[in-house]
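Work through this protein:
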Amino acid sequence: MKPTSVIRFLFAAATASLLCGTASAQQTVKIGSILSVTGPASFLGEPEDKTLRMYVDKINAAGGINGKKIELVIYDDGGDANKARTFATRLIEDDKVVAVAGGSTTGTTMAMIPVFEEAQIPLISFAGAVEVIDPVRKFVFKTPHTDKMACEKIFEDLKQRNLTKIAMISGTDGFGASMKTQCTKAAPTYGIQIVTEESYGPRDSDMTGQLTKIKNTAGIQAVVNPGFGQGPAIVTRNYAQLGMTATPLYQSHGVASKSFIELAGPAAEGVRLPAAALLVGDKLPDNDPQKKVVVDYKKEYEDGAKQPVSTFGGHAYDGLMILVEAMKRANSADPKKIRDEIEKTKGFVGTGGVVTMSATDHLGLDLSAFRMLEIKNGDWSLLKPGT
């Protein structure tokens, strides 16, 4: 082959390779996620991670989004807010994602929000605190019920039972502190008096001292424990050890997984909490709009992950599906167009409830999305009003 022919051949090969790479890139769309897969919040991040991977594979097998396969980029922040912010920058600058579904905790999510807001990349968070979407930020959404809603749902139940004097023992983590603030604000509206308050740190291994003070406070009719992770399980065990079970103990939706029941053991019996319908899908009436969604997700998750379903994986499912449907409607990889379609979500039936968002509501759930549950015989049961 002549030198000029070799040059032409190499140029043609390089051009073909470049065009092939461009065509390949055009056939995929990048979605990012930052989760606490390891570390103290792994009980949140692990099921979220498994859910996203499982359903992205399923969506891709069915043809992807408008013919484009999803390329999922996941980073594990280990529950560290600084790492979460660093990974958020990486997703934008290096990975060039068009949207993000993730943020396992309130702390990591709040660290990421300024990054995605500045870059104008839509974020659908899986964190619990109301501060994620209040005040409303243009590019930030979330799927879990808020801590404010949890307070209101618990107080509704207390009011129905004429239990108006309570004690609070809360975690000092981001979620626990936020929910404590929300409960304090909401209490007067429901005629609830918070007689005494105690708290515990994320590394505390015994809350007997705080609970003893509550036990010795006159007039307490119920105890509310804002928190997540191992802390609420320790509170529950200490509560039983002190013989306090005649006074109802209410936990938050931050403990809505079987791991809480396993950690708390027999002491979990009788604990009440607001949670998503996902935990009691088989107990829902057949005409409940969520029944098919939660029963199907539970089966697929447990078959694939080989572990009990939790509401935390459900939040990831809802976030991914809301995002995918928005991208289909937008028919574009433009983050701004995707954001607009997320905000237009109407009547989406997810594991957390029926979602209808708007320019002033980037959650789209009301109190009816919460179910009051009670732990009976080591499992979840629907709590009927006044029982």
Observations:
- Confidence is low (pLDDT under 50) at residues 2-25.
- Residues 3-26 form the longest helix (24 residues).
- The chain is about 45% helix and 15% strand.
- Residues 92 and 119 are 7 Å apart (CA to CA).
